[in-house]
Structure formats: C-alpha cells, structure tokens
Amino acid sequence: MAAITCSNLTKKFGKTTALDHIDLELEPGRIIGLAGPNGSGKTTLIKLAQHMLVPTEGEILIDGKAPGPETKAHLAYLPDRDFLPDWMKIDGLVKLYGGFYEDFSRETAEQMLTNLDIDKNMVFKKMSKGTREKVQLILTMSRKADVYLLDEPIAGVDPAARDYIIRTIISNYNPEALVLISTHLISDIENVLDEVIFLKSGTIVLHENTDDLRTRMNKSVDEYFREVFRC
C-alpha cells in the first residue's frame, strides 16, 4: 500500500489554485525530494497530508486512510517555521514529546542534542534561529513514524551543520517509512534521495527515480532542477 496517495487532489485559496488535480503515489521505504519555486504548492501538499488543510477537490490518503487523528499518530511533521512553545526549556520539550508520542525515543533525542552541543537547560526562544531549527528537527526525527514530512529542514542552518542534519535524517528515520523532504537546496540532499518530484504552479512536472533521472539527462538532479526552473 502506498504511504501517500493523491487522487485528483486540488486545493484552492479563493481564486488562487495552489494544487491542481494532482495524482500521485509515494511508496514507503523511500526518501523523496519535493522541489519547486516559492508558490509551487510544496507546503500546501504537506499541510494537506498533515490535515492542517482539507482538499477543495479530490482526496489525499495516508496509508490508505483519510488524514485525521489516527494518521497523525504515525506521521512526524516538521514545518518550515518555529512551532514549539518558546518559553520552554529544551529538556521540557523532550519530555513533552515523550509524553505525547508513543513512538518518541528520548534516548535518541538526547544523543543528538549532545552531538550538536545543545544545552538542554536553554530556553527555546533564547536560541539562535539555526539552533531552534536543529532542535525541532531532532524532536521530529526522534520518532519512529511511518511518514515523515519535512518542510525545508535545512534552509535556516549554516552549511557546516547541514551534513550532520542530513545524516541525522537518514540514520534515525524508520527505514520502512516514507520521508518527504521539501527543499530549495537540491544540491545538499540529492545524494540521499531515492526519488524527486518537481512542482510548478500546483502541478507535477516530474516524478522520477533520481538515478534514472541522472542517467537519462546526463546531469545532476540539481543541474536539471535549475534548468527546469530557470527564470
């Protein structure tokens, strides 16, 4: 069974069409990049899967079920902006996740915090933007979920930390899960991607195995992305 299935999926905001009759199947056990310029529909698709939005037409299913409380229990979501209570200390956030999600590993979270030299006694709002994003990623990837939705997980961190964060993603996720990563930074993550999806103006212009794409086009995924979306 596909981890995410979209059938005629459409989302409109007033007169603006964010997603336009998308048909898509994403299998478990894959790391898939979701790429496209701003306004292409990447975040809308992720929010529909997370049940933060509902379709205007068509449907989206998570493991064959409509998004809701049951699917959220098995879906780990990292939004593209701060979402944690900013007055809490990091240790308190770890305890919060541990109490809320049955699949959360406190041991995994604490090890990653130690590896990045993040003080568990620091208050979230007093940290730099990059450190806050690292903390949020650590909490998300410390779950053993069936689906991971990561919206721009490396956009706000320095290049020196990106490699660690990418290693964190590929070494801590459930290998039988689907990982869907929305990003503009294809060059930083293409080596870990099994597949890539290009979105443009709410439509899918490409969905292909990354090795097949590189062979077919005789260029990197990043090079082809730049060609497709050249201004």
Tell me what you see in this structure.
The chain is of the alpha/beta class. It has a single domain, classed as Rossmann fold. The protein has nine helices and nine strands. The chain has a six-stranded mixed β-sheet with strand order 5-6-7-3-8-9, with helices on both faces. A three-stranded antiparallel β-sheet has the order 2-1-4, with helices on one face. A hairpin with a 2-residue loop joins strand 8 and strand 9. Helix 4 (106-115) runs antiparallel to helix 5 (129-141) and helix 5 packs parallel to helix 6. The protein is globular. The termini are far apart. The model has no long low-confidence stretch (mean pLDDT 91).
Helical amount among residues, as a percent range? 25-40%
Low-confidence segments, given as residue ranges, are: none
Q: Could you say what the CATH topology is called? A: Rossmann fold
How much of the sequence lies in strands comes to: 25-35%
Structural class estimated from helices and strands: alpha/beta
CATH class: Alpha Beta
**Domain tally:** 1
Q: Order of SSEs, N→C?
A: EEEHEHEHHHEHEHEEHH
Cα Rg: 17 Å
Q: Give the total of beta strands.
A: 9
Number of helices: 9
Provide the residue-averaged pLDDT.
91
Provide a compact summary of the structure.
With 231 residues, this protein is an alpha/beta fold. The protein has helices spanning 42-49, 69-72, 90-100, 106-115, 129-141, 159-172, 186-189, 210-217, 221-228, and strands at residues 4-13, 16-26, 31-35, 57-62, 75-78, 147-151, 178-183, 195-200, 203-209.
